[in-house]
């Protein structure tokens, strides 16, 4: 199978590894022979104002289990302490997969890469994955018990 890129990056907190996260990862592996994954540390997630339930050690173990089952030996995971991690220093990364939510951060990264003399990353934008109710799937909605990790509604409307 021919890949468009040698190395693709993707990042996130991956709290409650849900089908939106899996779509992001799947796209990265479809485009890249090898995928560099940035996983937000607990401290960085808190700094971003994210209310995480699952600690870093749990999130990385769950992520590795998913990746090893689907894309063995084609990835590496980096602990993120900032928005960019290895994408600002690894000149071998060709592309980045983002959602609409993180598109502006990818554009910012390209500006910073250019300032360092690195080639810009090709930006691959994926569609937002929607739950059964037509609203975006998010870890927040899962934590609030509105939907499960597959996007199925868990609570009934009281109206």
Give start-end ranges of low-pLDDT stretches. none
Q: What is the CATH topology classification name?
A: Rossmann fold
- Order of strands across the widest beta sheet? 3-2-1-4-5
Let me know the largest β-sheet: 5 strands, parallel
The oligomeric status of these chains comes to: single chain
Order of helices and strands: EHEHHEEHEH
Q: Could you tell me the radius of gyration in angstroms?
A: 16 Å
> Counting H and I runs of at least 4 residues, what is the number of helices?
5
CATH class: Alpha Beta
Q: What helical percentage do the residues reach?
A: 25-40%
Q: Just name the CATH architecture.
A: 3-Layer(aba) Sandwich
Tally the beta strands: 5
Report the average pLDDT across residues. 94
As a percent range, the share of strand residues is 15-25%
Structural class by SSE content? alpha/beta
Instruction: Supply the number of structural domains.
Output: 1
CATH superfamily: HUPs
Alpha-carbon distance between the two ends: 51 Å
| Gross geometry | globular
């Amino acid at each position: 199978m021919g890949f468009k890129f040698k190395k693709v990056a993707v990042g996130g907190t991956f709290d409650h590894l849900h089908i939106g996260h899996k779509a992001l990862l799947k796209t990265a592996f479809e485009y890249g022979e090898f995928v560099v994954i940035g996983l937000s540390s607990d401290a960085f997630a808190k700094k971003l104002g994210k209310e995480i339930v699952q600690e870093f050690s749990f999130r990385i173990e769950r992520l590795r289990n998913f990746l090893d089952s689907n894309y063995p030996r084609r990835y590496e995971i980096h602990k993120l302490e900032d928005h960019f991690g290895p994408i600002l220093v690894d000149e071998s990364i060709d592309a980045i997969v983002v959602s609409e939510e993180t598109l502006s951060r990818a554009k910012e990264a390209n500006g910073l890469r250019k300032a360092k003399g690195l080639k810009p990353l090709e930006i691959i934008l994926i569609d937002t994955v929607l739950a059964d109710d037509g609203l975006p799937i998010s870890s927040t909605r899962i934590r609030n018990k509105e939907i499960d990790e597959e996007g199925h509604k868990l609570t009934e409307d009281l109206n």
